[in-house]
Amino acid sequence: MLTLLTYPSAFGLFSASPFCVKTALMLQKSGQTWQRSDILDPRKMPHQKLPVLRTPERLVPDSDLIRDWLEQQGADFDAGLSDVEKAQSRALIRMAEEHLYFHIVLDRWDNDEVWPILREMFFNSIPALIRKPASNAIRKSVLKGINAQGIGRFSLNERLDRVERDLEAISAYLWQSPFLLGERPTAADMSVGPMLAAMRATPVETPLTRRIKQDNLLNTYVDRMEQAVPLS
Ligand SMILES: N[C@@H](CCC(=O)N[C@@H](CS)C(=O)NCC(=O)O)C(=O)O
């Protein structure tokens, strides 16, 4: 049986990681039999990140490589889409995973109200005595990474403006159809849906959580996506 190595459930979601949720949705849609195995420390994984799929032959890291692997086994997440729609799908996925994602990371890790919640959730396996200094060091390195990536260098207002433009682009699709590229969820929804769900689920109210919750189109889309491919 396939095993999805994933971060545990958090904030009412299948996983704290939208990439793990994406992969769970793909596994579910692929019709493969699979199970989850929760991991908190990804350092022994091939990319030192999660998700990872354990197949009978090997560990497959990275949600996109896992998608490729599932497609090699016969899954087709974009059935019926034209070449142009597949190109739009690729752009939507990149926008969600290479841009929106980093705003979620900042919303979670750079917020002093969220931090104690994250610390207890992700680092409770670290002995209590060293939990604070060890987790503070990890927090610092995550924020350093976001600064190196570049998103961390914008002011809050600049960040919100960048996010807004992406959300407007997503909304333009959703005015046309219940899912991004039509009547049924496709690969783009499996990236964008979990990313918006993660944005909404940060356990303290922030401009980003409010932005999704107060937007009927986006809010109902997140719910629709969760109902379309239920994850137990
Ligand atoms: N490109 C990867 C991204 C996965 C990713 O960024 N995972 C994060 C959690 S959301 C992670 O494991 N981070 C641990 C780390 O960077 O140390 C994918 O699509 O799977």
Within the largest sheet, what's the order of strands? 2-1-3-4
Described by strand count, sense and barrel closure, the largest sheet is:
4 strands, mixed
Rounded to the nearest angstrom, the distance between the terminal CA atoms is 17 Å
Sheet-strand content, in percent, reads 5-15%
Order of helices and strands: EHEEEHHHHHHHH
What is the CATH C-level name of the largest domain? Mainly Alpha
Tally of DSSP helical segments: 9
In the CATH hierarchy, the third-tier topology of the largest domain is known as Glutathione S-transferase Yfyf (Class Pi), Chain A, domain 2
pLDDT average, as an integer? 97
Instruction: Give Rg in angstroms.
Output: 18 Å
Tell the overall outline. globular
The CATH architecture assignment of the largest domain turns out to be Up-down Bundle
Bound molecules: glutathione
Assembly type of the shown chains?
A: single chain
Pairing-aware structural class of the strands and helices?
alpha+beta
Q: How many extended strands?
A: 4
Give keywords.
alpha+beta; 7% strand; 232 residues; Glutathione S-transferase Yfyf (Class Pi), Chain A, domain 2; Glutaredoxin; binds glutathione; globular
Task: Write structural notes for this entry.
The chain has 232 residues and is an alpha+beta fold. Helix content is 58%, strand content 7%. The chain contains 9 helices and 4 strands, in the order βαβββαααααααα. It has a 4-stranded mixed sheet, covered by helices on one side. Strand 1, helix 1 and strand 2 form a beta-alpha-beta unit. Helix 3 packs antiparallel against helix 6 and helix 3 packs parallel to helix 7. The two termini are 17 Å apart. The model has no long low-confidence stretch (mean pLDDT 97). Bound molecules: glutathione (GSH).
